[in-house]
Amino acid sequence: MGNLKCTKKAKMILVPYPAQGHVTPMLQLASAFHNCGIFDTILITPEFIHHQIASSIEPKDQILCMPIPDGLDKDTPRDFFAIEMAMEKNMPVHLEAMVHKLVEDGEVVCVVVDLLASWAIEVANRCRVPVAGFWPVMFATYQMIAAIPDMVRTGLVSDTGIPQHLGRICFLPNQPMLSTEDLPWLIGTLPARKARFKFWTRTLDRSRTLRWLLVNSLPDEYIDGKHAQSVKSSQDHPRVFPIGPLSNHVMTKNPSFWEADKSCLDWLDKQKSSSVVYISFGSWVSPIGEGKVKNLALALEASGRPFLWVLGSTWREGLPIGYLERVAIKFQGKVVSWAPQMEVLRHKAVGCYLTHCGWNSTMEALQCQKRLLCYPVAGDQFINNKYIVEVWKIGLQLNGFGRKDVEEGLRRVMEDTEMQNRLKRLHERIMGDEAKSRIESQTWARFNNGALWTSEGGQPRRNRRLRHLHLKTRILRFDICGFALDLLLGLCLCLEIGLCLVEVDFVLVSRKDEKIWA
Q: What are its E.C. numbers (predicted)?
């Protein structure tokens, strides 16, 4: 996939958190940078991830994949806690050696680190390479994590992250109201919740050393602009650059950790337009439990609507006896272990998506203009659900899997023409031609007159090659996620001429010329 020693281009190292929902947006970011055509991107993942995706990335993508050992036994399940141990104990020494080697071979201008892989921030700092954070989901979730110290100080949660009053409402700035039961670290047993909270506090502490944070979020998460706020760097938080949604940026191929069953596309071809319910609860957390699988299965069958359900083989034990054969004979249901999701969502037969509200899935549904029936399971999904249901109003929340709940939820979502109209308007605002023309009338990025590069002694010095920059000054744009994003191209230009990431001041103006980001 390329020889690093043969290239004279500057290099950017990307370190994702090793899970499908994090590797995908990092690859989209790499693809966006590659479209600039001016430097190499190097994706560093544990060996078990590398083996799953490397063969799917084509040479023309110009994404160099490099593995590092995770130190785990071959038969060890790669769950959250095993991955955390590998990241904290085993992987840093290997990444540090690799970064030092890459620096020796050529100019490494930046390391971009998924904040959930915050261990790599410390490695980059030790290697004296500029480091930028990457937040692959909604900015509102970052705001919630950043509010942890205030939650502890005010007694909303204990110093181990356990809510002091279940069901109490969290009043966080510029966010829909959330219950303390919806906090992202409240997954699993009590010890597991405490361990996840410790993970998040450590992530927050490490992120304080960052100067920049690229966020795969909408430029204006609150569409009406009433709840807008300025996002500025401070002593405790990096400067935030909203660069999403990256899902709207077309990649040649989106490598999946699992082989997709494309027979479902042939099945969709035989269904009526907008008639099919697509069900998928993502790839990370165990979906909904055996009992709920059974209830949902019976409810879907009773609804009489055709459905395509992504359900792993280990979870099919919860299905009623003879269920798969029964729905297949009636030509009502198709159950697959994994589906080519974007192809499914683009299909005209799909009329509704029953989703866990993962951020990637949410943005893909928005991109394909599919209405949502929401059943959040864990993590950031509760926040995403609030935006889908209460702010954007492009979906409904499903509170249970009883037959009446499912039937009524599907009916309301699939027959609500106003919801479809709101979805269309939101899509146009965020991903369509309207967004492009709106951005063209604004100044997205204005670079500092002088950029800083960190010398070996840790002191800033002016880059000598900066003097050539003003001779070539021009507005650069490329289409990413429906926006002419000067910011990202500006970063790429600076990377090519050997600068570190430059702090950028920019303003996003709403239709009424209200400042949303500054």
A: 2.4.1.-
